[in-house]
Description:
The protein is an alpha/beta fold. It is built from 19 helices and 16 strands. It has four domains: about 5-130, Rossmann fold (3-Layer(aba) Sandwich); about 135-310, P-loop containing nucleotide triphosphate hydrolases (Rossmann fold), CATH 3.40.50.300; about 315-395, Orthogonal Bundle (Helicase, Ruva Protein, domain 3); about 400-453, Orthogonal Bundle (Arc Repressor Mutant, subunit A), CATH 1.10.10.60. Strand 11 and strand 12 form a beta hairpin. Helix 13 (about 320-335) packs across helix 15 (about 355-370) and helix 18 (about 430-435) packs across helix 19. This is Acetoacetate metabolism regulatory protein AtoC.
Amino acid sequence: MTNGRILLVDDEPAFRQLAQSWLQNSGYQVQTAADLAAARAQLTGFDADLILLDLSLPPQFDPQHTLAALADFSSRPVIILTGHAERQLALDAIAQGAWDFIAKPVDPDLLAVVIKRALNKHQLDTELKQLKASSLDGLNRLIGASAPMEAMRTLIQRIAPTDVRVLVTGPSGTGKEVVSKALHQLSRRADKPFISVHCGAIPADLLESELFGYVKGAFTGADKDRPGLLKLADGGTLFLDEIGEMPLPMQVKLLRVLQEGTFFAVGGREQQRIDVRLISATNANLPQLVKQGQFREDLYYRIKGITLETVALSERRQDIPLLLQHFLELHSKQQGQRLQLDSTALSWFLQRDWPGNIRELKNTLESVAAVAQDGVISMADISLLHPQDSEQPAAAALPANGLLLDDAVQRLEIRLIKQALAQTEGNKSQAARLLGLSRQGLLKKIDRYRLSV
Ligand SMILES: Nc1ncnc2c1ncn2[C@@H]1O[C@H](COP(=O)(O)OP(=O)(O)OP(=O)(O)O)[C@@H](O)[C@H]1O
């Protein structure tokens, strides 16, 4: 058990050795680096809680240059050590995000106090961030109490705080993106961006410039520099959805980024460095794609890290009522009106197969909610959209205590008109055709029933 992990960046070997042994004697785990490049390399394998940074480092020996690199160490406290103990430099360092400033020669007792305070504050900040993230979002968005969902929550909590790469696999619509967002929201990167890239949705010839950005003049139409999604994700999480659909030439380029942590914008000469956590997702069988030569084996092993598998809804049917309740609450909040399922509708949802998983369940609920009236979804509403599932046509359902025929006919007309308009995205001519009416006839009914369309 250590008191914390410290990276000491200083070009003087004697000072490095001395300070390392002070700190190790105080129970810290310490690694050292002689310049910024070595420091960045160390951080890929050593997740330091704090950085002690000399401002005058080779090859430039320019404090301003070192200060400009502070952003690379984002989210960790940095304590500046320098012989240049000028007031302005101290203020600059703090303004640019350093935690504190100590002049050389360093007083070991003072250093111990400053480090302890910085680590305490850092720990509190991290805990607060994680608490906020988990109470607001994170795991709370992951609905389900089945054993696979509980196991998934436990894994997410364990893996999220690390920077390990994660591959989320599972059938379509089972929540791979929700899981990936939870990993981000429970990580120390939670207040940085979560950038989602659907690798199959971006045309192959645009994927490179979308990911890496481009510089002005790189190709026709590139009239100014544009950062890519990789740069936008800097400090945060890059989510590569449907990674199995990434074209092979792009896989080679991604592999280089993952190996070296650097890339060039399209048409650019300046090497760019990024710090992102990579989460990938796929519903394809990647080992199979590797065998077929459609996915690079070396990339597969680079992105695999830890694999999390989401489970089809058919294997956790006990989650269906919880999911329905969750989506009804969401809908009620958005519409400002309480929405419920009556018992016949609930049993229809519970009995049905959901090959499209949670996405299909959610979409189906939303579509029947659109035709429901008076805040209750009934089997009659469902039958309108899924007539094959009703034993008798909805219009013929006669309640035991009778009904007012004109009233029932009007209600049915209203529902069918709304459904036709929803299906045609509000196109009245098409909706009229679906209903076997003239456009004029439909407009009259819309007017008579005062339907807002
Ligand atoms: N456990 C869950 N709790 C609440 N909502 C969920 C859960 N899982 C999935 N959803 C919802 O279901 C829909 C589909 O989820 P998501 O996009 O994460 O699935 P996916 O597995 O990434 O799908 P695809 O493979 O098609 O990209 C989203 O609207 C999401 O909010």
